[in-house]
Design a protein that fits this description.
It is a single chain. 42% of the residues lie in helices and 14% in strands. With 373 residues, it is α/β, with parallel strands linked by helices. It has two domains: 2-202 and 359-371, Rossmann fold (3-Layer(aba) Sandwich), CATH 3.40.50; 218-356, Rossmann fold (3-Layer(aba) Sandwich).
Length: 373
């Protein structure tokens, strides 16, 4: 098949492309590199937001690239906002893609209208980026995303593409559970939820993996995304870690990376024993999975639903925390005080990613998904 992966989140498309190419498919990745993270791509659609001429040069490159975005068997959009334009200006580009390609799928991989609205109003998850139990989150960042996606052109765009597209792959349990609540009827008689398929995120396993524990202080890594610390709960997790560092200065070494490119992030991550990530998640995200593939323990989202959707009854390597500082503090303290657990959790972390997220296994599932459209 000839496949176009359009847009990028946390290296999902670039990694998926590697697997699909090894299966013999012709794959093109067109994206902005996920902004400052600067992931690899074949067609650069990066927009310089700081330069006065950035908009003009971006539009010139975008229109120049249009002939390269046609003639594919499958086009996969990372999100309804798959290029750096206002939502009301994206629909003509979507129609162009629809007209000049065979099938289009839209990823349920992150922030979109359904993620914001379903978890605000229906709340199928015990907690999420938008709710704690029956109560909506009221922090500034959660409200900002609601204002961006609900009752706006972004909502309209998301709904139109979801109704029109041929399939919706969901990368995490949370996104699968959210889209399962969408009962909108499409012209072909299916509901939006009927188009969905859960397919785990892909990870390239490192060639050399160190799963043993050296002893000494626990080397704990925290990666902070620009402008999203409170939204993802990193601020709370870091606060708990700093308190533990004060209490156990000889047993905990804290490493913090903020807003660094992907390659630098990986270098800083290497050599860590554990990572704090995604306080409000049920599941490990791409950054967590990358860490686990290196034998690094994740302290974050590892709810029972995560293991259930993967049909995993043996490996439970993630140290699951509830969305509050005390839970993070308690679970991390237990890891510090019981270092004998570390080697086994590291081993299980590697095997978990190998079993469920290896990029070739994931590429095979996408191949099956695309073929069945």
């Amino acid at each position: 098949m000839k496949i176009l992966l359009l847009g990028e989140y946390s290296n999902v498309h670039n990694t998926l492309a590697k697997g699909l190419r090894e299966l013999g498919h012709e794959v093109t990745v067109a994206s902005d590199g996920d902004g400052w993270k600067d992931y690899p791509r074949d067609i650069d659609l990066h927009r310089d937001l700081e330069s006065r001429t950035g908009r003009i040069s971006f539009l010139w490159r975008l229109f120049k690239s249009l002939p390269l975005l046609r003639g594919y068997d499958v086009v996969q959009l990372i999100n309804p906002i798959f290029i750096e334009l206002k939502a009301q200006r994206i629909m003509p580009f979507y129609r162009y893609l629809r007209r000049h390609n065979r099938k289009i799928v839209m990823g349920a991989f992150g922030m979109d209208y359904y993620w914001a609205s379903v978890n605000t109003d229906i709340r199928p998850l015990r907690y999420s980026d938008f709710n704690f139990g029956d109560k909506p989150r009221t922090d500034i960042e959660a409200q900002r995303f609601r204002d961006e996606w609900i009752g706006t052109p972004k909502q309209t765009l998301n709904e139109k593409i979801a109704i029109d597209c041929d399939g919706i792959p969901a990368g995490l349990y949370e996104y699968w559970a959210t889209y399962n609540e969408v009962h909108t009827l499409c012209p072909d008689g299916r509901q939006i939820r009927d188009k969905m398929r859960f397919i785990p995120f892909p990870i390239v396993m490192p060639e050399i993996i160190h799963t043993f524990f050296y002893g000494g202080p626990l080397r704990l890594f925290v990666g902070i995304s620009r402008g999203r610390s409170a939204y993802k709960g990193t601020d709370i997790m870091l606060k708990a870690a700093r308190k533990l560092q004060e209490r156990y200065p000889d047993k905990l070494e804290l490493r913090v990376a903020e807003g660094v490119p992907f390659e630098q992030y990986c270098r800083m991550l290497d050599g860590s024993d554990a990572i704090l990530d995604q306080l409000y998640s049920y599941t490990p995200s791409m950054n967590s999975l990358l860490a686990m593939s290196k034998g690094i323990i994740v302290v974050g989202g590892g709810e029972p639903e995560n293991y259930s959707i993967l049909d995993e009854n043996e490996l439970h390597p993630i140290i699951n925390v509830q969305p509050n500082e005390q839970s993070v503090y308690d679970e991390l303290e237990q890891l510090i005080l019981h270092p004998e657990r570390i080697s086994e959790l590291k081993r299980q972390s590697v095997e978990y990613v190998r079993r469920h997220h290896d990029y070739m296994r994931v590429a095979l599932r996408y191949e099956e998904f695309y073929s069945g459209l």
